[in-house]
Design a protein that fits this description.
It is a single chain. By secondary structure, the chain is α/β, with parallel strands linked by helices. The chain folds into two domains: 59 residues; 225 residues, Uncharacterised protein PF01937, DUF89, domain 3 (Rossmann fold, 3-Layer(aba) Sandwich), CATH 3.40.50.10880. Helix content is 52%, strand content 11%. The two termini are 18 Å apart.
């Protein structure tokens, strides 16, 4: 079952609308129109149990429509990428010093989860780009509250074609670190997936090119859609085919978790969720507290084409 919206999703969606609108325009009348438009459809969306990723995607579309600004987060994404790239070289050196392949992957996944903290539209979650570099070592000391890294390693010893669903700009630099480890240390073929168009601070092909993601993976594709997470009725045929051809799905971030959890049987192959739990709604679904670091593998033995 997809993640159902909780009561906290109401203020979260409204606050996101205010912030996104303010990034797109400084005209108070336009901002007011955006907020009122969101408040108009929000009750119906809750009646339909729209998952949180759908709520925030719709806020973005309303803002784009009423302001004419296609990518309100363009500057934020650029700064996020540049900030993360400053940390990347030292992390690569650390990975080289780790002899055990399992521990090397665990380190990379923890770094990627820290990158998942680079989120600016979750109610109650605060993150400072300015402090990322100075606090990174302390973040790495935090445990994985759910640690299925060993299980993931068992899967990738048997199956080598990985579909990696990326999340935000900036954190995609740390996803690059994971892809590099999977390719060089585990012999995996890694296809990275970014969004088909701007939505919040989610990574697009422009971000992938900015950080030279292609250096660490075999191929980069898009979902073919600008919705947060994965909505199978909207994704491209290329994405569907690549999903069917893959052996394992690595799903990064809350938006992808919100849209895929409960659908693993339909996907028909192991799905590994990697994320920082930034809200109580997602925490309840995973059975962990807010601010937990999670690597959770959902196994399905029978591989089958369903989409």
């Amino acid at each position: 079952m997809l993640v159902k919206p909780g009561l906290l999703c109401i203020p979260c969606t409204v606050n996101a609308a205010l912030d996104i609108a303010s990034k797109a325009t400084d005209d108070p009348n336009v901002i007011k129109k955006i907020l009122l438009e969101v408040l108009k459809w929000l009750p119906e969306a809750f009646e339909k149990d729209a998952s949180p990723n759908i709520l925030h995607s719709e806020v973005c579309r309303v803002t784009q429509k009423l302001t004419g600004v296609r990518d309100p987060f363009k500057h934020v994404k650029t700064v996020s990428n540049e900030t993360a790239l400053k940390v990347y070289p030292s992390l690569c050196e650390t990975v080289k010093s780790i002899r055990d392949n399992v521990e090397a992957l665990r380190f990379c996944l923890k770094a990627a989860i820290i990158g998942n903290m680079m989120d600016f539209e979750v109610h109650g979650h605060r993150f400072s780009l300015e402090s990322l570099e100075s606090r990174f070592k302390n973040y790495l000391k935090e445990p994985l509250v759910i640690d299925d890294v060993d299980k993931l390693c068992e899967e990738i010893t048997r199956a080598k074609k990985i579909l990696y669903l990326a999340d935000n700009a900036g954190e995609i630099v740390f996803d690059k670190l994971v892809a590099k480890c999977l390719k060089e240390r585990w012999g995996c073929a890694v296809t990275m997936v970014v969004k088909g168009g701007p939505v919040l601070n989610d990574a697009t092909l422009e971000d992938a090119e900015h950080i030279r993601l292609g250096e660490a993976c075999d191929k980069t594709i898009t979902t073919g859609d600008d919705t947060i997470g994965i909505v199978m009725s909207k994704v491209s045929e290329e994405f569907k085919q690549t999903l069917n051809d893959s052996d394992i799905v690595i799903s990064k971030g809350q938006g992808n978790f919100e849209s895929l959890t409960g659908l693993e049987k339909n996907i028909g192959k192991p799905v590994c969720y990697i994320l920082r739990v930034k809200c109580e709604v997602v925490g309840r679904n995973l059975g962990v507290p807010k601010d937990s670091n999670v690597v959770k593998l959902i196994r399905f033995q029978k591989f089958r084409k369903v989409y």
